[in-house]
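Z., the sequence and structure:
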Amino acid sequence: MDAIKVWSQVFPTHAKKVQSAWRKMEPSWQILRTFRNRAGFHADKPMRFFAARNQLRKDWTKVQSALDEFKKLFDFFLKAEVAELGAELGPALDSLLDELEKKQGSKFQRDQFKAYLMIADPTAFAT
């Protein structure tokens, strides 16, 4: 899932903010993807593994900046979910789970989904 596209679609009023952040993150994105694919979550052949790790280390300042930008955006949207979508989140999740259950022929424990923070707790962000 592409969080940048999702946030732009779910929060169209913040699309400019998302795109501005993406422009700051994009230069490091290929480095991060390569690291993820070859050394971070999957191990590739030793030469590729160490090359990806080395590239990340060489460009760490740039990569760290991109990660910080993503975290700021993520934190912003955690709060925006509650403030702007609030009551819509529960019914939207239930609708998605209905669709999944019908399509997959399985049953989900909805309370567990909510406990796993699929729906933000509005009190967690109270100021």
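The CA atoms of residues 8 and 16 lie 8 Å apart. The chain has a mean pLDDT of 85.

Let me know what you think.
H.
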